[in-house]
Write a structure and sequence with these properties.
Elements (H helix, E strand, L loop, with lengths): L2 E6 L5 H13 L3 E6 L5 E3 L5 E3 L2 E2 L10 E4 L3 H9 L1 H12 L3 E5 L3 H7 L6 E2 L13 E2 L4 E4 L2 E4 L5 H13 L1 H10 L9
Parallel strand pairs: 1-2, 1-6, 2-5, 6-7, 7-11, 8-9
Antiparallel strand pairs: 3-4, 10-11
Length: 187
């Protein structure tokens, strides 16, 4: 199965961070949660404290197949400001490895030039941060090795797309059935 690194910073959006970790682990992928804060305890944007598997500076990333950035306003700012992470993202993107971001975090891909000439999505109102991209109003968009998600409400779609990309259509369909995922609106 695939090796996945998901990066956490104080202010991360909990649903966007933990849904991909959960669904990717359910399908047998090795997912490592990595804190960029210099400590393994990270505070989410809604007061949920989580414990990352590792800190960034003690992790080698050569074996990664997919690198995920959850959103959240403060979390995205912290991720964008952490040069070792942006340097790593440039390296792995240049090697053709998969990168994924949701909510505000696709703005980092805009800054790094990853979405130029591609289709992408981002949190509503942030479309201008997708430099050079065609911004789509869709829950999740994959173009080449870049996957972007719209926001917290798209976390399940985003996560299923990552499962599909790493494990195939049948595994994603089976997971969707097992988790009783359906699109229903209560409002």
């Amino acid at each position: 199965m695939a090796k996945v690194y998901s990066f956490f910073a104080d202010g991360f959006e909990e649903v966007e961070a933990l849904t991909p970790v959960d669904l990717l682990r359910r399908t047998g992928n090795e997912v490592v949660t990595v804190s960029i804060m210099g400590r393994t305890q990270i505070h989410g944007s809604h007061g949920i404290l989580i414990e990352a598997d590792r800190c960034f500076e003690e992790t080698a990333f050569d074996d990664g197949d997919l690198f995920i950035l959850p959103g959240g306003g403060e979390g995205t700012q912290n991720l964008a400001a952490y040069k070792p992470l942006t340097d790593l993202l440039k390296k792995v993107y240049g090697e053709g490895k998969r990168v994924a971001a949701i909510c505000a975090a696709p703005s980092i891909f805009g800054t790094l030039g990853f979405v130029s000439g591609k289709n992408a999505t981002v949190y509503p109102g942030m479309e201008a941060t997708l430099t050079g991209a065609t911004a789509l109003d869709q829950p999740v968009v994959t173009d080449g090795n870049v996957t972007t998600g719209h926001g917290p409400g798209a976390a399940f779609d985003f996560s299923l797309e990552l499962v599909r990309l790493l494990n195939g259509d049948s595994v994603a369909a089976k997971l969707k059935e097992q988790t009783v995922f359906q699109h229903h609106s209560v409002v």
